[in-house]
Predict the 3D structure of the following.
Amino acid sequence: MYFIDVQGTLISDNDKAPIRGSIEFIDTLNERKIPYVIITNNTKKSSVNFFNFLKSKGFNIEQSSYLDPLMLLESHVQKSSIAPYGADEFLEVLKKMGYVFNYETPKTVLISIKENYTSEEFAQIIDFLLAGASLMGMHETSLYAKNYKRYPGVGAILKLLEFATSTPYEVVGKPSTVFYTEALMMLAREKSDVKFSDVTIISDDVKGDLGGAKELGMKTIFVTSGKYKSAQEIVPFLKPELRPDFVYADMQEILERI
């Protein structure tokens, strides 16, 4: 059974094209009737639109095997009085979901990804947090890759804000236990007694995705087709207990091994 990341794993961070072997890997799982859940930190499109985007790229997946943070957001963040930060597309999705923005006295600061956070935005966020607002992240990625550049991920930004204000944060998407538990419940439709130890997770985010998964007992596969150019950039610097079980270049290499 598998949890499978999307950006940098199934599709390229740069041109959104399917990565070598990714469509074939999904087809193989379907043919062999091996259960899986597509787990993505998508926040720039509605869940339905991003799912349909993946289908348009040739991925033969079902809605019942797809999970992103937006699908859990309403159960974790009230719609009234939030101060969201992220890409314009993310803000538009929130408005369509009925969230009420408040950049005066918000109850919750909600952090998503974008490459051009400004010092003024950080100053505003810090004031809100010191005034008592709670801090929520859409996910906890370590790096954000776009247009062949790498930026601090949401996880890095959350830790910056936590250090600056001593405000603890929660996370909706990966690698939160809440998110992975929801994904496990989706697998349970196929195998009622499934446990985290039965799951292998595949991702290009060895810190943001795989570290939390490993702590829950999952087997981990790190692919270097996304955020990192090689395992040597990051794996030697991880704590031994958080290092991935396997490292492959891309989904094609994994496909050849199974």
Remarks:
- The CA atoms of residues 23 and 62 lie 14 Å apart.
